[in-house]
Predict the structure.
Amino acid sequence: MAFVSNDEINSIRAKADIVSVIGSYLPLTQRGKNYLGVCPFHDDHSPSMSVSGEKQIYKCFSCGATGNVFTFVQDYENVSFIEAVKIVADKCGMKLSVDTFNSAPQIFKEEHEIMDLAQKFYLNNLRTDSGKDALKYLKERGLNEDIIKEFGIGLSLDTNDSLYSLLSKKGYDKKRLLDVGLINESNDKVYDMFSRRITFPLWDKEGNIVGFSARIYRGEKDVSKYMNSRESKLFKKGETLYNYHKAKDAAKREKQIIVVEGFMDAIRVSSVGIKNVVALQGTAMTQEQINLLKKLRVKVILCLDNDNAGEIATVNNGEELEKNNIETYVIRLSGEKDPDEYIIANGAEAFKENVLEPITFFEFKMNYLKQNKDLSNVTDLTTYINDVLKDLANNDDAILRELTLKKISEEYDISLDILKSKLDDLAPVVVKEKKEEVKREIVKKDSYIIGSEKVLYFMMNGEEYIREYQKKLGFFSDSLYREIANEIVYFLENNKKITVADFITYVNDKDSIKGKVMEIVNDSANDEVTMEAMDEYILALLKVMTKNEIKRLKELMKKELDVDKKMKLAAQIAELKKEEV
């Protein structure tokens, strides 16, 4: 992992306004001096997340999610802590001293260098005399200079080994080039994989080039139109979505992402200004790809090819998305085979109208189930209605269930009671995912625990509260609280100042105390922090500690046989009782 100093991280945290950053992900409404929003970390239907601009922290009253700007981005984006720091830095216009993003693991360092060199070579080729025909072809296909540059479109030359020759001279060995799929070897002859084709780089989710797709452009016969990189240690087709690294920010802004089949579809859709688009590069969606979409926390619009295979893929992929609790919609284009051809034939506005009016996956599935059925035939109608009810039994939306049953009842003149009874019969056999209980367990805490946690929270808010603790208390009997207090003091000594938000960053990798610190912050985030309140909590703690000590001494007195020692213990108890008063 790249190393970023604590000073640099704290500087970024100080410049980043948590209200603005969280507000870029979800709507916030001001309530007094804080802001409220729907918590993205559980199934929240009413605002339960409070964001404090003053303290630069957030807390959820329901599920207990708590933290600062870094932890929010880390959990929301599902990225590492250092990647979250980079994202926050970018949002507030700062640049990290080290490159933490778009950097491959060290074990793939050389492979990525090779892919980057190949990409530069392909890009340059398109701008030479040898690239004139390819460039003309691209522009005739409606791809202008901006799109060509945006998607890194290049050209592999007619010569059989020009890329191999270049990379060999750079010192890269043949085996490494074979491994990443840039060359092939046959009969002891080495040749470039994509010769005589236009090249399109393929990226991983971070934006590193991991492979290429290449297309003929002269109308050659008896050859495949497209050629793709074979799977390698870098490129695993089922783990990537074409254009994901570019589309994810636009998807979060638009609250939706469009999924198409081919990369040319994604390029064409992007060329008309719709940037929240990714391509499967196939029809079947893998769990890894579903996980990438799920991370975005937006609705998914499936816009697959307008053929039988595309329709079946829409059914299968839609079902998998809904199993993963992803809100799913569908666009089925009419006339042309895919979004690329549709936009060329009908124009950008026609496609945009489709994007504005997608149908729900359930509605699409109902229409799909009608296919190849004569609904005037009793057997076909019965099959159709039973199929709809089976699907409906898997759906938790009570309104959708009610409206669908009424629609079937009215459309086919079937008793609503019979439909409801049939649906009830199906429900027990449907395995439904249990929703995770997000309400925090309310644990009753005694006065010592409450006081200790309040003092610790106050200490996180400034040096003066730490000094007050050291002067008037200085010790916790509980080992966990003692460890947290020691870390707070250590943080102040090393950083010369302390805030709750910065201390949260500090404990991010301290597993022994992180959970308790977050709990303390969540429970106390809305408290008014004053020295008067701090002293009241310290006084309450001292009283509890005194009572506990009196109790301990009394137990010793009961066991003590020596009269003089009993007298001394009695004197200590009397003195403590005076202090207690």
Residues 531-559 form the longest helix (29 residues). The chain has 26 helices and 16 strands. The radius of gyration is 32 Å. The mean pLDDT is 88.
